[in-house]
């Protein structure tokens, strides 16, 4: 209800302030919904069918976001931006109708009071790390603001861990991370969604600004990745049953990392979309293979009466990973662009060069009014964007390589050890 009503408010918002509040409430509603969907599945299905159920959930959760963006872009093209919210409103109504009849009314006991200090500490830590990762590539890791922000985030993290270990009713029991499945599955989803989120951030300006595509066409260009992700998520349980969860996760990460390497090495302005398509397809295939066994590793690590905790942790790692990845890879893209464009604007008037250095979108806009310097500015911006792109993607490759090694040596033992069995 919160999610649906918030989207209604956003659709009719008369001012920006109302829109921002409505979107905030929409996020709160979505955060309440997502963990419940997975916990209902893991609690309702027997163990022998849970892998396939989680595979279907992962396929919808992973590919649904891109499908939703495409439908939203279509609504904007054929109507107006207010119709963006028609889709979530319609889905909310459908979900309510189906949920009342099909979803079992289960309840997990929650003894004790809500851990407000722990929640506040976690928010400060998440915001601090996200800000630092986004700004550090441009300002430098030694910048006083970055150092102060990182210090604050580290202290908040330490405070959160200390609080959760001492309080009788923790928001998140840190001791659960001694379980291999929980720790490795959470780490994989955190990093994988970070890399995916950062990659999407890089792709949209490439499609829309560098190639000049519309928002609708740019979203459609991501469909091969989404469709392969959904397909691989459904196939992952069958592969895990044959070769094991850890081997499936490593295979998926290797394929996804290869996709990043392909996007970093093949991308070019002249080659256009075809230079990134092989990498997109590999990313989708690899992510789908890795996500399903990771999600099952998390949920299998805890008993049935704690599936709400497992589901919430699964969702948290996805959302936090996406935020951190967008901040890091986006910051690297901006820093790489600004570093590369300076030497390509020799002879361009200072005011035009300053505007072009702010970003590829500004450079494209100012090139239309730059007279004889327009072509030079546009070419410089496109080449600098590719340089920043490659820097961000190669960092992603290194991160994925490190994650692959971690899962190879510290991934879950077997295809789904009982809760509490597979320890570090």
UniProtKB/TrEMBL annotation:
It is found in: Cell membrane. The keyword Nucleotide-binding does not apply. The keyword Membrane applies. Residues 1-371 form the Major facilitator superfamily (MFS) profile domain. PROSITE patterns: MFS. The chain crosses the membrane at residues 20-41, 53-75, 81-102, 114-133, 145-165, 186-207, 213-235, 247-267, 273-292, 320-340, 392-409. It holds the Pfam family MFS_1. Keywords: Membrane, Transmembrane, Transmembrane helix. InterPro entries: MFS, MFS_dom, MFS_trans_sf. Its main location: membrane. It is a multi-pass membrane protein. This is Major facilitator superfamily (MFS) profile domain-containing protein. It comes from Pseudonocardia saturnea.
């Amino acid at each position: 209800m919160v999610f649906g009503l918030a989207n209604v408010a956003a659709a009719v918002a008369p001012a920006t302030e109302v829109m921002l509040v409505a979107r905030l409430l929409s996020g709160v509603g979505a955060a309440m919904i997502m963990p419940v969907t997975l916990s209902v599945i893991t609690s309702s299905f027997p163990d022998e069918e849970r892998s396939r159920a989680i595979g279907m959930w992962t396929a919808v959760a992973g590919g649904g976001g891109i499908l939703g963006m495409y439908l939203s872009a279509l609504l904007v093209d054929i109507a107006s931006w207010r119709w963006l919210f028609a889709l979530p409103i319609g889905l909310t109504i459908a979900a309510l109708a189906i949920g009342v009849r099909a979803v079992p009314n289960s309840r997990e006991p929650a003894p004790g009071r809500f851990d407000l200090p722990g929640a506040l500490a976690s928010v400060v830590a998440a915001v601090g790390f996200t800000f630092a990762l986004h700004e550090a590539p441009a300002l430098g890791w030694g910048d006083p603001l970055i150092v102060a922000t990182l210090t604050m985030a580290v202290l908040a993290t330490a405070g959160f861990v200390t609080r959760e270990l001492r309080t009788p009713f923790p928001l998140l029991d840190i001791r659960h991370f001694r379980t291999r499945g929980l720790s490795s599955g959470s780490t994989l989803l955190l990093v994988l969604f970070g890399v995916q989120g950062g990659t999407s951030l890089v792709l949209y300006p490439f499609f829309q600004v560098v190639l000049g595509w519309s928002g609708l066409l740019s979203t459609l260009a991501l469909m091969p990745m989404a469709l392969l992700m959904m397909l691989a998520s459904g196939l992952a349980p069958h592969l895990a049953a044959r070769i094991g969860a850890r081997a499936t996760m490593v295979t998926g990460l290797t394929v996804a990392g290869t996709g990043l390497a392909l996007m970093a090495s093949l991308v070019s302005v002249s080659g256009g979309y075809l230079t990134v398509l092989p990498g997109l397809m590999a990313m989708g295939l690899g992510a789908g293979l890795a996500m399903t066994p990771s999600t099952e590793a998390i949920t299998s690590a805890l008993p049935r009466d704690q599936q709400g905790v497992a589901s919430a942790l699964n969702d948290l790692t996805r959302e936090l990973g996406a935020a951190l990845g967008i901040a890091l890879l986006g910051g690297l893209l901006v820093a790489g662009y600004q570093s590369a464009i300076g030497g390509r604007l020799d002879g361009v008037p200072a005011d035009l060069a300053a505007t072009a250095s702010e970003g590829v979108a500004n450079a494209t806009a100012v090139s239309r009014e730059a007279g004889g310097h327009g072509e030079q500015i546009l070419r410089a911006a496109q080449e600098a964007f590719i340089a920043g792109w490659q820097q961000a993607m190669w960092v992603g490759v290194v991160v994925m390589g490190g994650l692959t090694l971690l899962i190879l040596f510290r991934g879950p033992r077997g295809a789904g050890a009982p809760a509490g069995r597979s320890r570090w």
